[in-house]
Amino acid sequence: MTTNLTAPDIAEIVGLTPRRIRQWAEDGQLKRQGVGLYDVGWCMYLAIANKAAPQQIKKHGASVMVAWSWLSGVANPPTPADRTALVGLFKRNGFTADDAAQAIGTALALI
């Protein structure tokens, strides 16, 4: 399954402009996955957080808010398969499993 798309493709999916997707990369909230490619999963969760709690991103960072958005769409508590999927998302975007666990912990405190 392809997880990387262009900024215009992602922008169409999440309802933002391609420029906004590129700005996230310039701001360090989003890792480029290649020339002009970005992780669609990360972008979807980041878009949810940007729409629902934009000030929290500035305060806690993109990784915590990606986890926060993810938590809103999984079982409570998250299943092992859910956590494995999130760790995979984090790893694809330059983070570790420990980073994912820490982001989940911080995000849980925000809910």
Notes on the structure:
By secondary structure, the chain is mainly α. It has one domain (4-110). The protein has seven helices and three strands, in the order βααββααααα. It has helices at 7-14, 18-26, 40-52, 54-60, 62-71, 80-92, 97-110, and strands spanning 4-6, 32-34, 37-39. It has a three-stranded antiparallel β-sheet with strand order 1-3-2. The model has no long low-confidence stretch (mean pLDDT 94).
State the end-to-end distance.
31 Å
Estimated helix fraction: 55-70%
Order of helices and strands: EHHEEHHHHH
Please identify the structural class as seen in this structure.
Answer: mainly alpha
> Strand order within the widest sheet?
1-3-2
Mean pLDDT: 94
How much beta, percentage-wise?
5-15%
Gross morphology = globular
Number of strands: 3
Biggest beta sheet summary: 3 strands, antiparallel
Total separate domains: 1
- How many helices? 7
Q: Unreliable segments (pLDDT under 50, ≥5 consecutive)?
A: none
The Cα radius of gyration reads 13 Å
Question: What brief labels describe this structure?
Answer:
111 residues; mainly alpha; 3 strands; 67% helix
Record the SSE blueprint.
Blueprint: E1 4-6, H1 7-14, H2 18-26, E2 32-34, E3 37-39, H3 40-52, H4 54-60, H5 62-71, H6 80-92, H7 97-110
Helix pairs in contact: 1-2, 3-4, 3-5, 4-5, 5-7, 6-7
